[in-house]
Amino acid sequence: MQLLELTEVSKLYGFGDATTVAVDSVTLTVEKGEFIAIMGPSGSGKSTLMNIIGLLDKPTHGDYQFNGRNVARLRPNRRAKIRRDRLGFIFQSFNLLHRLNVLENVALPLSYKGMLQARRLTKAGDVLEQVGLADREFFMPKQLSGGQAQRVAIARALVNNPEIIIADEPTGNLDSAASRVVMELLSDLHKMGHTILMVTHNPELTRYAGRVLFMHDGEIIADEKTQVGEVPELARRFYYMPKQTQEDDLAGVSALMDAIPQKEEEKSKKKASKTKNMKYKRKSKKKKEA
Fold first, then answer.
1. d(CA 4, CA 32)
2. Contact status, residue 159 vs residue 124, Cβ threshold 8 Å
3. Judging by beta carbons within 10 Å of its beta carbon (0-12, 13-18, 19+), is residue 66 exposed, middle or buried?
4. How far apart are CA 282 and CA 285, in angstroms?
């Protein structure tokens, strides 16, 4: 089932000679239940495209159909309502409110719907249990690790049961262990039927997606369906990721072992030279005193 469709969508900033084309005539269709990874160098238009899909920005040209409805030219209040009810956002920097505890942060989107406090806190608690943070409900954001903060952000994105989850570099501020936890969580959400659009610079994360888009200079230059669990060859080529073999690892260790004795030898030579210079200075000083 088709969830959204962009047709010849462009986004321009500035005027005349100072015009910058952030997104250039992009045509894209997303089916319900897809997990799509979007890759490309910095400045390629990934985040701008996500802002258009997430109704945070309007396209300068083109057509945007969401669930069969043209949403490209909606008024701000209509766009805000669709964002609130049908879209969930996960940001690289978490964007948690530091004056609210974890439970209140997750419940925040429900308050904009006018839901009673007791009901929204109960629902937020249920979602926190889903992401494995039921024991952190009354913690403040500063008391959380990076991985826990991102899981809270995911819970907040889920609390409205959105049709699309938009994740912009969700592991960008996390170490490898926390990144794996977050990606496994997103994978589980995908298996439950959620549609996920994820921007990433890391080719390894594309193994969780079933489709990978590559952007360059505002255009989608490649659109590849992939097997979940595998990094597509195109991602490796774009990011210069040659496959590591056991021979490569051994060669690297050998080079390191060769380099260590050389460094030790250089240190010994420098130390001997320094000692020799000190002895020479002492002799010279004694001769002058005599």
1. 8
2. yes
3. buried
4. 5
CB atoms within 10 A of CB 117: 11
Q: Where do the H-state alpha helices sit in 65-170?
A: 76-86, 102-111, 117-130, 146-158
Task: Count Cβ atoms below 10 Å from residue 111 Cβ, excluding itself.
Answer: 12
Report d(CA 77, CA 136) in Å as an integer.
34
| Mean pLDDT of the residues in the chain | 84
Higher model confidence: residue 236 or residue 281? 236
Residues 26-58: tens digit of each pLDDT:
999 999 999 999 998 888 999 999 999 999 999
Query: 2-238: what fold?
Result: Rossmann fold (3.40.50)
Distance CA 288, CA 40 (A): 71
Residue whose token pair is 């570099």: 169
**Cα–Cα distance between 127 and 106 in angstroms, integer?**
8
Chain position carrying tokens 């594309």: 206
Q: Are strands 61-66 and 2-13 parallel, antiparallel or unpaired?
A: antiparallel
Helix axes 102-111, 117-130, angle to 10 degrees: 120
Distance CA 183, CA 29 (A): 24
18-42 exposure pattern, b = at least 16 Cβ within 10 A, e = fewer: eeebbbbebebebeeebbbbbbbee
- Domain residues of the chain, as ranges? 2-238
3-class secondary-structure state, position 229: coil
Is the pLDDT at 251 greater than 80, yes or no? Answer: no
Question: At 191, which helix (H) or strand (E)?
Answer: helix 176-191
Whose tokens are 């004056």? That residue is 99
